[in-house]
Amino acid sequence: MAAAKVDMTLLPPILECPTETPSNNNVADTGPLMNAASNASSSNQSSASTVMSKSKTKFQPSGTKNGRNLCALRWLKQVDANGDKDDFRAYYDKTLTKTQREAYDVEAKQLVATNGWTKAAIKCGTLY
User: Fold this and answer.
1) What percent of the chain is modeled with pLDDT above 90?
2) N or C: which end of the chain has fewer CB within 10 A?
3) Spatial CA neighbour of 71 closest among 61, 59, 82
4) Cα 43 to the center of its chain, rounded Å
């Protein structure tokens, strides 16, 4: 009967973009979250609140239409929807080459010039 006192919050389903994603982005990465949710029913309420307190603040790029923000918006849509600013900074500054960053700059300028900066261009655009 102790399990009846635990307040469980249901999470929304994970949505996937129809475009190709990196191979390291798989369902197995959600294992600890699923285990924490199932373990919360057999443990006390304080451990469930400990799991919830470790969540990150959602990363939101500024409204400036530039290559870095284009990359950030695509990264959030296609790679890591729950990523934070530090995760993106590591991806952009350390993972991408100078040529890849320049490709985002060129594409961002082109999208602004042609008035093509839309959700569709971001959601299913190319990750360089």
Assistant:
1) 38
2) N
3) 61
4) 29
CA distances from 1 to 10, 23, 43, 45 (A): 20, 43, 12, 13
Q: Are 84 and 59 in contact (CB under 8 A)?
A: yes
120 Cβ neighbours under 8 A, 6+ residues apart: none
* Maximum separation of any 2 CA atoms in the chain, in Å: 63
Most confident of 22-26, 27-31, 115-119: 115-119
pLDDT band, very low/low/confident/very high, at 119 (cuts 50, 70, 90): confident
pTM exceeds 0.70 = no
Q: Which amino acid is present at 87?
A: D
The pair of structure tokens assigned to 124 is 């299913």
